[in-house]
Design goal:
This protein is α/β, with parallel strands linked by helices and about 280 residues long. About 30% of the residues lie in helices and about 30% in strands. Helix 3 packs across helix 4 and helix 3 packs parallel to helix 6.
């Protein structure tokens, strides 16, 4: 089991001590002999939205998936350094990755509802965890939490696949929060959506922040600036001898600082469009 005791840590970018959910120290992720990211150190505060930005191939999604051990599912993946969740090392042998993923939910780039009814999509996780009573209320509560209830309350028996792309993504968010997680990880959740659906997801993220800690990977810098409290900027270090591309964390700070007054010239070049 993971201890829920909250400790306070000083973020390198913070001007005051804040409660954190994740403390990442010297993390390196390898796929076989390939180093995907290295020397990753930053701290993710509770009940904030943290955005991970940077060019393609810089390791944003690799870092995100390391937070709930999704990389365990990739053959040859190895994570070193320390990833602490509420001060517990999530890669310790005694940690159950299935239980960890219940507490740290994930929403993927492409909406992926199950080929089941809207109701059964939301009830799937709680049923898997053994819940049999109160499912109707839980489904309604979760759909309301994902700002979808009013649109689907009269068609809960319809397939989740019958919904629009934006509705499907909100259904996936409802499915994630139905198991009462602590954290929601979002990997490019709006990249497949139109601007109107994107705006609804962004509004939803701001609302969910009151109850959850959210970490989002996005290529959309405007989106990161709009919705996030803090931003981590990653870049790619290219080894000219072997041609290997390794992601590195350049800077982590409050989003208003990252987008208006970053401390590293590489960050300035990227957010101003002069990257490369």
């Amino acid at each position: 089991m993971l201890d829920q005791e909250m400790l306070h840590h000083e973020s390198p970018a913070a001007t005051m001590t804040v409660p954190t959910v994740f403390d990442i120290e010297g993390m390196k992720v390898m796929y076989g002999s390939f180093t995907a990211v290295r020397d990753i150190t930053f701290h993710i505060p509770k009940n904030e939205i943290t955005a991970l930005i940077g060019p393609s191939g810089c390791g944003k999604s690799t870092v995100l998936r390391s937070l709930n051990r999704m990389n365990d599912l990739v053959r040859g993946a190895k994570v070193t350094g320390t990833v602490r969740y509420h001060d517990e090392d999530i890669y310790a042998p005694e940690v159950d990755p299935v239980e960890l993923r219940r507490r740290i939910g994930m929403v993927f780039q492409k909406p992926n509802p199950f080929p089941k009814s809207i109701y059964d999509n939301v009830a799937f996780g709680p049923r898997l965890n053994g819940r049999k009573k109160g499912l109707d209320d839980l489904v309604e509560q979760s759909l309301r939490g994902a700002a979808l209830w009013d649109e689907v309350k009269d068609k809960l028996k319809n397939s989740g696949l019958s919904l629009s792309g934006g509705q499907q993504q909100r259904l996936c968010i409802a499915r994630a929060i139905a198991v009462n997680p602590d954290v929601i990880l979002m990997d490019e959740p709006c990249s497949a959506l139109d601007p109107i659906a994107t705006a609804r997801i962004e509004d939803l993220m701001r609302t969910l922040r009151d109850d959850y800690t959210i970490v989002i990977v996005t290529h959309n810098m405007q989106q990161a600036a709009r919705v996030s409290d803090r931003t981590a900027f990653f870049t790619v270090n290219i080894d000219d001898h072997v041609g290997e591309r390794t992601g590195e964390l350049v800077e982590f700070d409050r989003s208003d600082v990252i987008f208006t007054n970053p401390s590293d010239q590489r960050t300035e070049n990227y957010v101003s469009g002069r990257f490369g």
